[in-house]
Write a structure and sequence with these properties.
The complex is a heterotrimer of chains A (about 280), B (about 220) and C (about 220). In chain A, about 55% of the residues lie in helices and about 10% in strands. Chain A is of the alpha/beta class and about 280 residues long. Chain C has helices spanning about 5-20, 25-65, 70-90, 95-125, 130-145, 150-160, 160-165, 170-205. The chains are: A alpha/beta (about 280), B mainly alpha (about 220), C mainly alpha (about 220).
């Protein structure tokens, strides 16, 4: 096997090692990179910023530990923004593994702003059959959520006294790693005309741009970069901002890997053509 | 306990990463432990957050609070229990009833929203820019979007062979699709690397490890 | 009866939820709310069925001592310990949260983070500019990969001539954004419209009983 063929069929573990180094080393390199805020993220920030004090925002925590590195920082950033604006927050979870994460996020962030549970925020917990839950909340939130996560009936929660359904909610921000975004758009957005914004993983971003273009979504916070942009807007550096230098270096390394792979392929093709001509 | 937990988490993470070298018993152990713990977690959350408020408490309130209106919960509970009949031969057909109910519910509920959100709004979004052509860039962008939508849709029209005019339109559609897939791949790379960053950040911030590393 | 009853139920429910948004009468809405509550109840059992199916698979493996049956014992240990602690101690008990945060969360995060390695390996091996379309895909991916991280702007502002940087200070980010919101968005829109038409026709077939795959293998 020639050197080029060996390079073309390189042991995958060498590539794994390169990626591991590309991700670990930048943690120790001091690097300040400018963060440009994209329009989709700015739209979400501006919308929440313009909400009057006492408005109600519903946040959907529809992700599990697998996508926490991307979605948890943006969740926390949006919660901090809402709490700093004295906006009431209702948390719901349509993904079973997000139930505990959501409780932790709402509670720990509320403590920073002296927010009181049941008066300033309420976490309703996880329910099965997400589409039916979204449809049910359009009629009455108490149908899918008779109690909150602590087991308190909604009728006994002071904050929920004047909140019946989507008509009383200014914005729903869905943090999602899967299909829940489509369901919110189809059922809450199309049927009940609820204003929606989304925080999603990078994989989902390109599929949501058609909804952004039509105004069905007011904005998208996409991936770790989106989370870093939101942290930049609320002027609170978090895990996402710190991860940007690592992300940047890793992207450059992957681009170089792809270019190298293509260069080896082209050289190998030329070599085979020359050998073919000789024969 | 917290410290032990962190180190157990780190050890399990390394068991998973050992798969990168080759498949081994540590990875298999970690993989199957994950399946079991996830199922146990799902059962717990379903029990506390769904079974209790939707089934147990309404039925209990019939007897303790006299809420006789809740007796209608018996019907979906019975339908739900029919789902377990799939494990028997003789009464296995009963599982069709609750599934038919749910399938009908969702199928009917999805038609109008799909039509509104994914067809009507998307066509409106394609045509809308032509209503306010106030600069060259707006006109160019509007035309690019219109051509892209039509060509992409026609690419997926397989009832006629892609020759002649349709062939040319399909080729333009492929160009748009390839650029779109490339952009999606770019975002996928970002997403996957982010997940790895999260785990490496966890490992590098372990209590003893952190003290040895440069800040 | 065994075949006809489910099809009739599906038809009634499908027609009901299809016309419900267009009939704003309170009685109709009350029936819809009731039907929605019924779906929640049945959904609980559907989740339990999913867990039961998993348990059945691993019980069979242990009973037959098939390949990897010891791993199935690990599954059951994890399942019973977690479920036991959670159901008896409560979902907010310290031990249950400890198991979730240190075992479940760690394992799940680690498992999904493996994708970064596999993606890089696949990118090296398969991402070849063999044709014009593949080259377009590659260029588009590089534009987005550089444009959507801060280093793209950093390199642009430090390598490119100052006159161009002054005119377009954030060119990589803005070009990635334009690509996403005009070209990539357009291709997704075309796919979305086609998929929606397919979804609507499938829903109609399910309601009308033409599509019966949900009834099981005998249909």
């Amino acid at each position: 096997m020639s050197k080029l063929e060996k390079l073309n069929n390189i042991d995958r573990r060498i590539i794994y090692l390169i990626i591991a180094i590309a991700v670990i080393v930048p943690f120790f390199i001091p690097m300040g990179l400018p963060i440009y805020v994209s329009p989709p993220v700015k739209n979400v920030h501006e919308y929440i910023d313009a909400l009057p004090s006492g408005s109600v925002v519903m946040i959907g925590f529809n992700f599990g530990p697998s996508t926490m590195p991307e979605l948890y920082p943006m969740c926390v950033a949006v919660l901090r923004h809402c709490y700093s604006k004295n906006i009431k927050v209702i948390g719901v979870c349509l993904h079973s593994e997000g139930a505990t994460i959501a409780d932790n996020a709402m509670r720990s962030t509320a403590e920073e702003y002296d927010y009181k549970e049941h008066e300033d925020y309420v976490y309703l917990g996880f329910k099965v059959q997400p589409v039916a839950v979204i449809l049910g909340m359009g009629e009455d939130i108490a149908i899918p959520f008779p109690n909150d996560y602590t087991g308190t009936p909604l009728s006994k929660i002071p904050m929920m006294k004047n909140i019946k359904n989507y008509n009383d909610i200014e914005l729903v921000v869905d943090f999602s790693s899967g299909l829940s975004t489509d369901w919110w758009i189809l059922y809450a957005g199309a049927k009940y005309h609820q204003k929606l914004a989304v925080g999603c993983t990078g994989v989902m971003v390109s599929g949501l741009y058609p909804y952004l273009n039509t105004g069905q979504l007011i904005g998208i916070i996409g991936g770790l970069k989106g989370a870093a942009e939101y942290e930049n807007l609320i002027e609170q550096e978090g895990k996402a901002t710190l991860g940007m230098k690592v992300q940047s270096i890793a992207h450059v390394v992957i681009i170089l890997i792809v270019i190298f792979g293509n260069a080896v392929y082209i050289l190998l093709l030329r070599q085979k053509r020359r050998e073919g001509v000789k024969n | 306990m917290t410290l032990i937990g962190l180190w157990i988490g780190a050890a399990l993470t390394l068991c998973i990463y050992s798969f990168l070298y080759k498949d081994n018993p540590f990875f298999k152990f970690a993989e199957h432990l994950f399946v079991g713990v996830s199922a146990g977690y799902l059962l717990t959350i379903t029990f506390h957050d769904n079974f209790m408020p939707y089934i147990y408490e309404p039925i209990k309130s019939i007897f303790t609070d006299g809420k006789y209106g809740e007796i209608q919960i018996i019907i979906p509970t019975a339908l739900g229990l029919m789902m377990f009949m799939q494990f028997t031969h003789k009464y296995g057909w009963m599982v069709r009833l609750p599934f038919a109910f749910m399938m009908g519910y969702y199928a009917g509920a999805s038609i109008a929203p799909n039509m509104q959100a994914d067809i009507y709004e998307q066509i409106r979004g394609t045509a809308m820019p032509f209503g306010s052509l106030d600069s060259v860039s707006v006109i160019v962008n509007a035309i690019i979007i219109l051509i892209g939508v039509i060509c992409t849709l026609l690419y997926f029209f397989f009832s006629k062979e892609h020759k002649g005019i349709l062939g040319g339109i399909s080729k333009v559609g492929i160009i748009y699709l390839m650029i779109g897939f490339g952009a999606a791949f770019g975002y996928t790379v970002m997403s996957r690397i982010s997940l790895l960053i999260g785990r490496i950040d966890f490992l590098l911030n372990l209590p003893l490890i952190r003290s040895f590393l440069p800040q | 009866m065994k075949k006809r009853m489910p099809i009739i139920i599906c038809l009634i429910m499908g027609v009901f939820t299809l016309i419900q948004p267009f009939i704003p009468h309170p009685s109709f809405n009350n029936v819809f709310k009731g039907a929605t509550r019924w779906v929640y109840v049945m959904g609980v059992f559907a989740t339990l069925i999913g867990i039961g199916t998993l348990a059945r698979l691993h019980i069979k493996r242990i009973a037959r001592k098939s390949n990897g049956w010891i791993s199935s014992i690990v599954v059951f240990i994890g399942f019973f310990v977690t479920a036991g602690v959670g159901i008896i101690g409560g979902k907010k008990s310290d031990l249950f949260l400890w198991i979730f945060n240190n075992i479940n969360a760690s394992l799940e995060s680690a498992m999904f983070s493996l994708l970064a390695f596999f993606m890089a390996s696949a990118a090296y091996r398969a991402f070849r500019a063999r044709t014009f379309e593949a080259t377009l895909l590659l260029i588009s991916a590089i534009v987005v990969m550089l444009g959507r991280v801060p280093i793209g702007v950093f390199l642009w502002q430090n390598i490119i001539p100052q006159a161009l940087v002054d005119r377009y200070p954030f060119f990589p980010e803005e070009s990635a954004e334009w690509l996403m919101s005009h070209i990539a968005m357009t291709s997704r829109r075309g796919i979305m419209i086609g998929a929606a038409l397919g979804a609507i026709s499938t829903s109609l077939k399910v309601i009308l009983g033409i599509e019966r795959s949900y009834l099981g293998s005998n249909e």
